[in-house]
């Protein structure tokens, strides 16, 4: 039996999915190029949504100047077709194109030949479509809801109610509430099946509380490590050997814009500290009020130092 390799044409090869490179950095798996705005060059809409604001503004200005320059050349090719324009003046034709493209309304210069009116009609149509597209893109960029959620730099495994418990902190950095906030925690590690096949497996971690009606200040997320937990029986060394990583996903409704917002974070095996505990950030004032000290939000101490 002979195998024949299928040959793809150049057009077919353009639609093939390029190889994806994955590397491990600080214990975390990273897909090279994922999330980078320049990775969307084959998808112009996503490119214009993800490109940084300075690049977006430069791109708009470049497009605006280029299209006006092209129409200025088109008017120059028509000869003396614009009233009160200096013959052969590129600047006069350029500024006349600016008036036409933006639908400003003509002053001293206006078209006087059929050729000029045809070019003006084409440019006016392009201007209407261009303004609509740029306005929509700018609105889409401004209206994208974002969350400002702070995650502790490390997670800890410490006794809680006499049970080993995985704990990490989150805090809302805005002066508003995230309504109906939901927290999901996943554990990802390397596993080998009974057939000896390698697999990167994902586990759901059950939390003591996975949702809250209003996420305003801080939230200590806890997972009890019992016999049903994927972390049961594991050690710091086994977490490193299996390339274990925690993936955190937070979603809720921002009360200001009434839209769903998302926040993600991850912890590598070396960012999960055993037998440590977070420093208490809740304090009392002299008049009996409570306040939160965010300056120590990331601080932890070994258990032997807290006893």
TrEMBL record:
SUPFAM superfamilies: E set domains, Voltage-gated potassium channels. Residues 71-139 form the Potassium channel domain. The chain crosses the membrane at residues 56-78, 90-109, 115-140. It is found in: Membrane. Keywords: Ion channel, Ion transport, Membrane, Potassium, Potassium transport, Transmembrane, Transmembrane helix, Transport, Voltage-gated channel. It comes from the Bacteria. Residues 149-302 form the Inward rectifier potassium channel C-terminal domain. Gene3D superfamilies: 1.10.287.70, G protein-activated inward rectifier potassium channel 1. GO terms for biological process: monoatomic ion transmembrane transport. It holds the Pfam family IRK_C. The keyword S-adenosyl-L-methionine does not apply. It is a multi-pass membrane protein. This is ATP-sensitive inward rectifier potassium channel 10. The lineage of its organism: Bacteria, Bacillati, Cyanobacteriota, Cyanophyceae, Nostocales.
